[in-house]
Amino acid sequence: MAMAWGQGELFAKASKQEIQRTKFLLDKYTDMVSLMRDFEQFEQDMQQITIEGEAARRIDQTDLHADKTANATILIEKQRWVYKRYQFYTNQLRRACALIKENETKQAIDYRYIQGYSHKETLLFFRHGLSSSTIRRRLLEGTESMANTLKLMGFFEQDNAEF
Fold this sequence. Notes:
The protein is mainly α. The chain has helices at residues 16-52, 68-98, 103-114, 119-126, 132-152, 155-162; strands spanning 4-5, 8-9. The chain has a two-stranded antiparallel ribbon with strand order 1-2. Helix 1 (16-52) runs antiparallel to helix 2 and helix 2 packs across helix 5 (132-152).
């Protein structure tokens, strides 16, 4: 007998689209972390440049008159919003990775996506005991596991609600 919760299953499986979204975010993980670090380190400088620079002159090319102060405020808030989204994404991805049960699968995901090594470097790192097809399968299994975990955590509903 399957346990049900509301309209869904207690241990629902991620759809192909959700697995693809997870893979996309994993591919962008190291970029998001780098941009977050840069934002944390240079937030004040970025705000000053936005206020004094030309970036705030016109946000939209259709503007007939540009309110530089208002546009600078909009750009600063957009930068903060992007930073918060990246925080959310990276935290959820780390949580989902930590919950992968199979140790070799978790290691493969960590090495490839969290640490940011290329696919080829990942194959070379694990080549000592595993074939290339096994490593590819582990990466696929890990991505699916993470997508299932993210689905259980309500990640995809929160992600879609924000956009």
